[in-house]
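Study this protein:
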Amino acid sequence: MKAKDIRTSFVKFFEKRGHTFVPSSPVIPFDDPTLLFTNAGMNQFKDVFLGTGTRPYKRAVNYQKCIRVSGKHNDLEEVGKDTYHHTFFEMLGNWSFGDYYKKEAIEWAWELLTKEWQLPKDKLYATVFKDDDEAEELWKKVTDIAHDRILRFDEKSNFWEMGDTGPCGPCSEIHIDLGEGTCNKNHKCGVNVDGCSRFIELWNLVFIQFNRNEKGELEPLPAKHVDTGMGLERIVAVLQGKNSNYDTDLFQPLIEEISKLTGKEYIGDKNQVAMRVIADHIRMLTFAITDGAVPSNEGRGYVLRRILRRASRYARNLDMHEPFIYKLVDKVVEIMGEAYPEIEPRKEFVKNVIKTEEENFNQTLDRGIEIFENEISKLEKKGIKIFPGEIAFKLYDTYGFPIDLTNLMAQERGFEVDLKTFEELMEEQRERSREATKKIFAEGRASIAEKVEVLLRKGDVTKTEFNPDLKEYELEVNDESNRAILLSSDDEHIDQIVFSKKTIFYPESGGQVGDTGKLIYPGGEIEIIDTQRVDDLIIHFIPKIKKDSKLAREIESYVKSGGKFIAKIDVDRRKSIMKNHSATHLLHSALRKVLGTHVQQAGSLVAPDRLRFDFTHPRKLGREEIEMVEHLVNTVIFEDIELVKEYKPLKQALEEGALAFFGDKYGDIVRTVKIGDFSYELCGGTHLDRTIETGYFKIIYEGSIASGVRRVEAITGKALEKYLKEKEMEIERLSEKIDLILEEKQNLEKELSKLKLKLASDEIEKAVNSANAVKIDNFKVVAIKVSANDVDELKQFGDILRNKIGSGVGLLASVTENKINFVCVVTDDLVKEKKLDAVKIVREVTKITGGGGGGRPNMATAGGKDVAKLDEAMRNLVNVVKKLIQQ
């Protein structure tokens, strides 16, 4: 059977038994602060198991895309080395929500494996929890498995728990014996033997029948659930008779493509490990980037960067020094696109992100190798054969070198890596990472979520209602139908309030920030500084109040006595947010129209003072593109179009062309926001009634935040008014500065002119009195080269020369931009007595430079073209003057 047929037959088998097919959720979890990535099929049904959510069906079946690279299920360092660990995998699963239980789950699992897929019964084993007599009896009763193949294990192997508290229960696993020769470990092979690759788990059937309370006690659940999971890659290998998951049709087309691109065969450990790593990692990268993650230096993005760098490093083992991993995206789409159609329209974006990362890392990798070689050279000179753990860690942490690469490179040179120090530094990093992960997920929302789960399980509250279309800005709370409940994120303070029924405060979601406002009561006011949604509850955050304070006692007493509060939101702030949210929809649509439909939302922030929109696009926006986007948005704003908000089935909305976003969680009924023919999106946020209410829209920033992801920031309404006033003031300040600068410039120019005249005067006086001044009939003739900006300045120097020379003829020359300027002066006595004419002199002198001139008898100017003939022309002055005197 082909992998796609196995996937389909699993779904059809359970659909025939009354199960509803539920599409895979994204690998980027929605609103779950405990997960970096979706790592199991049950993630999207977690709220049902917790009792905080429901579904319109009691039985479900699906195949879920999963990623396991961090935390409890960190398999990364094993991926590629063995034949069955993966960063990305598919989980086949079936669920019962308070419907069927152990009997049907066991019976159907056995039927599918042995009748539908015809696995040999004598190779199968069933495990049950040591205290689960019911499960063992059912295996004996409803299947024909050999009784000695039913094995009991303790909590470690056969008891499932969601966390320290909450839903839990025994599980029953189905294992298969792959036969002798399939495990090369030095141990006695058997079911649940760590590291054994002969006996492998195929399917885990979890029976959720208890709730573990805060005391650690198990309480029976009123409704019992079934949660099963089976790795597709593993069952495909078994059904296709392959010893390795990488030999199946899920991976072989990829490995063949890698072989084709690299010119290497899938032979030998070095090539096989490298090809397996790359084949696995490109699947993970394709799905993670498709669903909204991008490589970066924190959170999920950092995990992606590590995975991509690991693949790039292994590409060097295949002698690939240029980017090529991105070329495999097309093959992933070819293999997986039918089951997961969302990857096809995003493939060009995914390729661009991966290619950019490859290009960047190749430079980093070369630098890392250089550091390694430099360190080795130092050690060799000292005769030391231990490679420092600190350097190995630096190579791992800064340059993405897996420790096995450093080990291998060191061994090839006869060195041993100090792994003890390396591991100590790694543990320090893991601790930092654990702390950072807590911070990533909304500053402690995970702990708040635990408290909320307790509230929900107790039945104190069920769900907080919020209507985004209700223009209601005040609400009376703490009556019988809508009680106020005080909460705390630690043991010493009160800092949260929940209303048991409904609220008018919008909880942060979809990029829109939460509302703020106040609770008014006879004793005063309580400020609400933020509003967040945790599971189905809306939490109102207030400034921390010490529990033992008079104020805390007063508020607690007032709440318990049923005292009423008036909840008021900050209306001006809400309206500013609405303007920016509606403008965000217009911006998204305008970007798609100007840049292309490859533009996809990658994140957003809708705040009262600005909006921020992250989107997929490979290059910087030009000024013209930004202006086109602004023009489109403002055109729609001033067309005064109504924003139509409707509730409709998700399928209908998508068929009508509404934009949905990967990573967002949608129910069967969704809210749509339509702005004429310009914009149509799924959205649960608060919006204006008409576009004209936005005012004007202005983009104030555009830049890059990650490979292939751009960010635009824009403003509207009062924020824009404030921005324009600030710009006006800035222009005024600049204008004043410019006036001062111009005035200072003029003063400096005057000073400079005076200095230049003084210098010129000194220089001319020196020349007039030097040996270069020739005497003819008791008057002087002198030619001087000077530096002058233009003819006017040269004429000023000419006046100085005429005054300094007493009685005589002078010629000044300066070169500007490869052209010659001349000024000739003749003192008045020579004009009268000798009939000398400056015009005639300058014309005759400059003739050789290709120039000509004009002016008055006592001062004339001329230009010259041939700079090379300047000295010759100046030397000719004396001859010209003598000649004119003789005439």
Summary: The longest strand covers residues 199-212.
